[in-house]
Amino acid sequence: MNYYNQPMYVKPTPPSNTNYQTNLPIEQSYIENILRLNKGKKIKVYQTFPDSNSWRDVEFTGIIESSGRDHIILSDPNTGMWQLLLMIYVDYISFDEPINYDPNFYPNN
Predict the structure, then answer these.
(1) Which listed residue, 19, 35, 50, 69, has the most CB atoms within 10 A of its CB?
(2) pTM given for the model
(3) What does the alpha-carbon distance between residue 66 and residue 14 come to, in Å, rounded to a whole number?
(4) Per-residue DSSP letters for the chain?
(5) Cβ atoms of residues 105 and 29 within 8 Å
(6) β pairing state of 71-76 and 42-48
């Protein structure tokens, strides 16, 4: 019993004869890694900014220069403009060509 005379929560333990699989495959197919595999390709990034009326739904087009866990960097060779986009606002990303994909990709950091 705790201070309020309520039974304390006790985490149940699984039966000892249960066989759990613990060697699941390691997958690194995070969005930033997929974008890294496609560096140099032209993409369209669709983002929604819920707190803005004038910038509610926006489409950004550019060449993938870099990506990280929380961002994408695009460049536009026609205008010379570079954009840093935050992943938190990404709805989806479209490519005009096949996507390079490897679920076991480990970036060189």
Answers:
(1) 35
(2) 0.69
(3) 45
(4) --TTS-PPP------TT------PPP----HHHHHHHTTT-EEEEEEE-TT-STTSEEEEEEEEEEEETTEEEEEETTTTEEEEEEGGGEEEEEESSPPP--TT-----
(5) yes
(6) unpaired
Give per-residue burial for 74-93: e unless 16+ CB within 10 Å, then b.
beeeeeeeeeebebeebeeb
Rounded Cα–Cα distance for residues 60 and 30 (Å): 20
